[in-house]
Amino acid sequence: MIERELTVTNRLGLHARATAKLVQVLAPFRCSVTLTAKGREVNAKSIMGVMLLAAGQGTQVRVRAEGEDEATAVEAVAALFERRFDEDG
């Protein structure tokens, strides 16, 4: 199991487009991935689950992956967060 703390830095937070991008990035991975924010834990591969976090800009999020490609999955999520979901040109 691998965990990493991330901060939502894009201006609009985890809105529909950003959430869809996150789920798309995680789709090829075989491990299970969860996101935890504001005391709520959700399946990071579920658009509806991630949307329920209502994670705005500045929200601390913990990503946890467990399974055969867990390290690569966490790195892919971290890279997406660092790129601000490719939104803030």
From TrEMBL:
<dbReference type="GO" id="GO:0005737">
    <property type="term" value="C:cytoplasm"/>
</dbReference>
<dbReference type="Pfam" id="PF00381">
    <property type="entry name" value="PTS-HPr"/>
</dbReference>
<keyword id="KW-0963">Cytoplasm</keyword>
<dbReference type="GO" id="GO:0009401">
    <property type="term" value="P:phosphoenolpyruvate-dependent sugar phosphotransferase system"/>
</dbReference>
<dbReference type="InterPro" id="IPR002114">
    <property type="entry name" value="PTS_HPr_Ser_P_site"/>
</dbReference>
<dbReference type="InterPro" id="IPR000032">
    <property type="entry name" value="HPr-like"/>
</dbReference>
<keyword id="KW-0598">Phosphotransferase system</keyword>
<dbReference type="InterPro" id="IPR035895">
    <property type="entry name" value="HPr-like_sf"/>
</dbReference>
<protein>
    <submittedName>
        <fullName>Phosphocarrier protein</fullName>
    </submittedName>
</protein>
<comment type="similarity">
    <text>Belongs to the HPr family.</text>
</comment>
<feature type="domain" description="HPr">
    <location>
        <begin position="1"/>
        <end position="88"/>
    </location>
</feature>
<dbReference type="InterPro" id="IPR001020">
    <property type="entry name" value="PTS_HPr_His_P_site"/>
</dbReference>
<dbReference type="InterPro" id="IPR050399">
    <property type="entry name" value="HPr"/>
</dbReference>
